Amino acid sequence: MNYVDRYLSSVPTQKNHLQLLGAVCMLLASKLRETMPLTVEKLCIYTDNSITPQQLLDCEVLVLEKLKWDLVSVIANDFLVHILHRLPLPTDKVELVKKHAQTFIALCATDYTFAMYPPSMIATGSIGAAIHGLSVSANSFSGEALTELLASITGTEVGPVQPYVKTSGSMGVTCVSQMPVAEGKSVQQTVEILTRKLELLGAEKQGTFCVDCETYHTAASTMGNQGQAGKLMYVMHNSEYPLSCFALFENGPCLIADANFDVLMVKLKGFFQNAKANKIESRGTRYQYCDFLVKVGTVTMGPSARGISVEVEYCPCVVANDCWNLLMEFMQSFMGNHTPGIPSMFGNKHDSIYSPGDTMAQYMELFNKIRKQQQVPVAGIR
């Protein structure tokens, strides 16, 4: 990507030449970085033979000229080993953090907003996002203390690093589904059976999680007609994002705000009323298995357990269509016949980047499904 960006910054290039440029830059990078570089023939096959070997070789000379033969570029990946060596991480977690940091660096290469960051800052932020996302303990360092340590290692100011860690730490593709209660078992017993299967697979406990949802409906004073149906808004929180608040409308967009949004809703009580009896939450244990993060939760309304939620995240991928088959295969290993089908929203995502809001929308659908199963109407609406 370094070669591509530098070439495009100096040479106007038509869209139909981008594949050729990309293939040439891959060839040059493999020659410099790999002991066994890619061959011209293999790259042509990768492009479905839309370019010829001669075109590739001719363009290679052109790119080298435009880059002034300066191919030894320092990239974010070059900083990872040096930074990780100076962090107080558990020895058995270093490779896992490195792998996830490499994924974040690759994602940054797909977003032009990161083009202005120096490689050292991208590496620093990616490691911070990986440690935060994996909930890895770095001795007594966490939160702002970890950010300050990372900034001191690379000689970067804390200010620029902090928002970068939050920006790069996006959620991997996630599937949220309901697990039916086993016949003759209680909710808690079914949860224990499920978590036991995960532990037998080799999954390790990684703390706890909580997702909650409060329902608001439009106040009667704001409705023009007496028979008019009120609109519902769901205000949700996720322990993975403690500083964020998610507001979702039925069949509508997801608004992501800071924690002060809850205070705003109190002040808007003349327009939106809280159906307090309908607060619902899922709370349980997080498990890490290789690149998968699994959360098995007990869904409750008030003091009563109403169901079981299973959230499975494939951390390295943020494009749903690229990893659904892998996700489904993993879920089958512990959910068996209860493995869910592809979430409806995946069909709408196509090749776009998965976001935390997509996970919250799945939780909203799950909570509403459980409410209907329990035949609990939303107070003030029906």
UniProtKB/TrEMBL annotation:
Q: Which GO terms describe its molecular function?
A: transcription coactivator activity
Gene Ontology cellular-component terms listed: cytoplasm; mediator complex
The keyword Electron transport is assigned to this record? no
- Highest rank taxon of the organism: Eukaryota
Family in the record = Belongs to the Mediator complex subunit 20 family.
| Protein purpose | Component of the Mediator complex, a coactivator involved in the regulated transcription of nearly all RNA polymerase II-dependent genes. Mediator functions as a bridge to convey information from gene-specific regulatory proteins to the basal RNA polymerase II transcription machinery. Mediator is recruited to promoters by direct interactions with regulatory proteins and serves as a scaffold for the assembly of a functional preinitiation complex with RNA polymerase II and the general transcription factors.
Instruction: Name the chain's protein.
Output: Mediator of RNA polymerase II transcription subunit 20
